[in-house]
Amino acid sequence: MILRPKTSLHYHGTLLSTPAGLPAATVPAWLRRAVPDAKSLVAHSLEDVALAAGAALGALDALIRRQERWGGAWGQRLALSAAATTAKQAGRIEDEAALRDTVLLTKTGDEVGPAGRMVLAWRRLVTRPSEDLLTRKHLGAVLEEFGHPLDDEALGDLADELRKLGAGGMVDMVVGGFAAAERYSFGRATGAWLADALVAQRLGWPRAVPLLGGEFNAAGPARPRRAGAGNAAGIEDESTRAKYLLAAQARAALRAVDLSSELGRRSERLLAVAPKLRARASDLVVERLLSDDAIVASEKIAGMSDRGLRRLFDRLVELGVVRELSGRPAFRIYGL
């Protein structure tokens, strides 16, 4: 049985904030114990799984509403992780480092390829206002990035269906986002993207957070529906699907909170040395590091030369406040 907190939580329709007295983004010990991994969590009842998911989203919600300066880098790092999961699901070999290279080392206007488009799809989730994500314009763009273009009529039908889901309960909304993707044969990556967008809109987040996208097999193992199965079997399948999705959502929310703690510490160290930097436009470089997953040393920032930018990055690495992410002697990439 999952350990229940003293404060009553409710997940069907609205999200409660974190339990009273806890600092923002703090994860209660009972929740850590309740969400060791998605597989063990789904062994419990749907109500207990929903309780854990609601509490995990409560901790994440408190973090998001602080609107930290490093939020851009945090969101893009989560998007990269989701893209790597998507690539793995598609049978591709690119890991996070390769996906980062695909996008950053491609000239503006050049084709980034199927793997690069997966990165662009998840970055779209974290860089566009959440209220715009499920409009026909952005739906059409993200479906193309995932390799599933739709005609105008079908795109309108999907947008209408998602709008109706957004007015329902949280559990039905998450499950419905996946179900809509399945009906159009879009696959689980698209279902995860739609569900994450719906959650962000419901909770009023300015930007969405890739949650289900970073969880491999978030919807559970694929199980073909048996011919002639009765309604009871269908209900059981839906309940199991809901538990897998909510368990994955809980696990992903805690993972996002943990990443925020790590990036928060790194950004504090960067901001502490920022006033001592003498390079021209170093303040703009610091802001870019806080806003993006990574920056290439050859990027043009406020007229800085390649040499000047490399020297600044080398200095930041020497100070231990920035990391070189590629491991290469050339075409180096830097980030928190």
UniProtKB/TrEMBL annotation:
Pfam families: DUF1403. It comes from the Bacteria. This is DUF1403 family protein. It comes from Neoaquamicrobium microcysteis.
